[in-house]
Amino acid sequence: MTARSFLIADDHWAVRKGVREIILNLYDNADIYEAKSHQEVLDLLLVKDRFDLILLDLAMPGMSPHKGFAKIRARVPTIPLVILSGTDDPSTVRDMMKAGA
Questions:
Q1: For residue 48, which of 4, 13, 31, 78 sits 20 to 30 Å off, Cα-Cα?
Q2: Is 60 exceeded by the pLDDT of residue 1?
Q3: What is the pLDDT of residue 15?
């Protein structure tokens, strides 16, 4: 069975750890990468651009949520990108869905 490849991007280590555990409980053979900023995601995508799923926190240091998401989406337009965020602002949710989340 082919390993599933995931990228967990969140600036809080506890969130990354929790999401990692959930994925490992679902997929025995998961290949999991982590990033704690939008820039780390972009840097990682320069060397590995094939993931089955990217789980992304919007509010991370160094870049605005909209700009960070747009840069990541532009780099990998076909990879499913799911937003994991405490933000529940309806306009932000709509904007991210229109942008490809």
A1: 13
A2: no
A3: 95
